[in-house]
Design a protein that fits this description.
13 strands, about 30% helix, Jelly Rolls, binds fe (ii) ion, alpha+beta, 2 domains, binds 2-oxoglutaric acid
């Protein structure tokens, strides 16, 4: 099947993800209609002021950072020049590796000003709070660089661990996303040892003799163009495949809409076979963070409903910033290098 016929087929086999321009989706509406409703959306023109949209090309990274050894996957790193050359030569029969483990604050901080000012819809909310549990405070929202060429793809269909929401913003090129609702989880063949990862590699063309239940799944699809962001709510399965050489960034969000999931997946999962004392400790920790979540909800409510009072008090914005307006400039924040999650 030709690449074009395959794209037409993909569009027929799937439902489209809603798409709204940021200009017509005030932040408050985004929070209510999508983040709190657990519904995915593509937001177009999400950060029109970013220099990255004009600057970032494969040639830019090759020229500026060609000698830098950069992480590509968990166990793979190479000079940026070599990676970009492989990516530009990538094609369906000979795919390049897919870059998905480069954390910008740690590995390429020079490009942070290109992502400023912070995009409102991608703001990481509670991840920026100093009250986050140790190792989880990430005011950058675990900002990652994602690069691949045609034929390559994100290595695994998954949902992001620890109950986090995810966003991916396309900077250069086009990338196809496939999303599957949490309700379809019984049909996606989740791995026993890592239940957020699926055994199915290509959700649009699964091997139905091996994975017959996949026939019951309703996949959603979106093609991101430069300047568009896909919001992937917690628990939604997803994978991505570049249609052209593609550069994007990924971030995560924790908010009151997924706080309970974050707390239970972080502190209460994997307790099978644990001792009673271990279970009791985990329960106490989880209860503590649930109570803390309620305090944060109060402060966030004040910032949203009564910004003048919140500003006068100053502590709500410092403890649980609701938007970039309340948070330090992402280019100046420091990141604890031990806090890296698995995505
Ligand atoms: O490559 C992509 O755009 C998807 C990234 C992703 O899902 C992740 O990093 O968890
Ligand atoms: Fe993900």
């Amino acid at each position: 099947m030709s690449a074009l016929a395959q794209l037409a087929d993909d569009a027929l086999l799937t439902r489209p993800v809603d798409e709204v321009s940021a200009a017509y989706l005030p932040y408050r509406d985004f929070l209510h209609r999508f983040m709190r409703a657990g519904r995915p959306v593509v937001v177009t023109d999400v950060a029109p002021g970013w220099p990255a949209l004009h600057k970032w090309t494969p040639a830019y990274f090759r020229e500026q950072f060609g000698d830098r050894i950069v992480p590509v996957g968990y166990a793979e790193q190479k000079p940026f020049r070599q990676f970009i050359d492989e990516m530009l030569a990538s094609a369906p029969g000979k795919p390049c590796p897919y870059m998905y483990r480069l954390f910008i604050h740690q590995d390429l901080p020079e490009v942070l000003p290109d992502l400023s000012p912070q995009s409102l819809h991608g703001f990481p909310r509670r991840l920026a709070s100093p009250w986050m549990p140790h190792g989880w405070r990430r005011p950058d929202g675990f900002l990652k660089l994602l690069i691949g060429g045609p034929g390559s793809s994100f290595p695994i269909m998954h949902y992001d661990a620890n109950g986090v929401h995810a966003t991916v913003t396309e900077i250069y090129g086009d990338k196809e996303f496939v999303l599957i609702r949490p309700e379809d989880t019984p049909y996606v063949y989740a791995r026993q040892d890592q239940p957020n990862k699926s055994l199915v590699f290509d959700p649009l063309r699964p091997d139905l003799t091996r994975f017959p239940l996949m026939a019951k799944v309703t996949p959603y699809r979106a093609v991101l163009k430069p300047g568009s962001m896909v919001f992937i709510p917690r628990g939604w399965w997803h994978t991505a495949r570049p249609l052209t050489p593609s550069i994007s960034i990924g971030m995560n969000i924790i908010d009151r809409s997924n706080w309970r999931s974050f707390v239970s997946e972080t502190f209460l999962s994997g307790l099978k076979g644990a001792r009673a004392s271990g279970m009791a400790k985990a329960m106490i920790k989880a209860s503590f963070y649930l109570a803390m979540g309620s305090c944060m909800s109060g402060m966030e409510w004040l910032e949203e409903e009564s910004p003048r009072m919140a500003r006068a008090l100053s502590f709500p914005g410092r403890i649980s910033p609701v938007s970039a307006e309340w948070a330090p400039d992402p280019a100046t924040i420091t990141i604890d290098p031990r806090s890296q999650h698995v995505g």
